[in-house]
Amino acid sequence: MQGKAIKYGDNIDTDVIIPARYLNTSDPQELAQHCMEDLDKEFKNKVQEGDILVVGENFGSGSSREHAPIAIKASGISCIIAKSFARIFYRNAINIGLPILECREAVEGIEEGDIVLVDTDNGSIKNLTKGTEFKAQPFPDFIKEIMKYGGLINYVREKV
User: Fold this and answer.
1) Which terminus of the chain, N or C, has less C-beta within 10 A?
2) What is the Cβ-side half-sphere exposure of residue 93, based on CA atoms within 13 angstroms?
3) Residue ranges of the alpha helices (H) in 5-60?
4) What pTM value is reported for the model?
5) What is the CA radius of gyration of the chain?
6) For domain 2-159, which architecture applies?
7) How far apart are the first and last CA of the chain?
8) What is the mean pLDDT of the chain?
């Protein structure tokens, strides 16, 4: 996947990703309309299909709602690269088929607007703007299978 980097800092919790006042729906497109609005009112206007979210430490902390990764994915983000993820967000993202990678060096080496190429199969992250490359831990085989089917529900439907 390749896209423009949209970058934010540390400790972005699920209330910032999708404010609780919008949790009366599970419609991905409705959630996407309000994604990150308490952090960046222009997020929904600047994100384009395939863009890559680059964030700091502890991304997705807070409540365990899966609305947060759903809102991000529906907004057009193809992948998230973070210094670290809250564990429940990490699992929720995998469950809905949103690729996420942890790579501290990549986050420090990517700036807003850089064009980034990510290969989750081998953990390769290339900053095409700066000509640099980083290596994240690739997904284990069972997560690759879940991602291949677009999330856990589709995976289970196919395998059961």
Assistant:
1) C
2) 26
3) 14-17, 28-32, 43-46
4) 0.95
5) 15
6) Alpha-Beta Barrel (3.20)
7) 29
8) 96
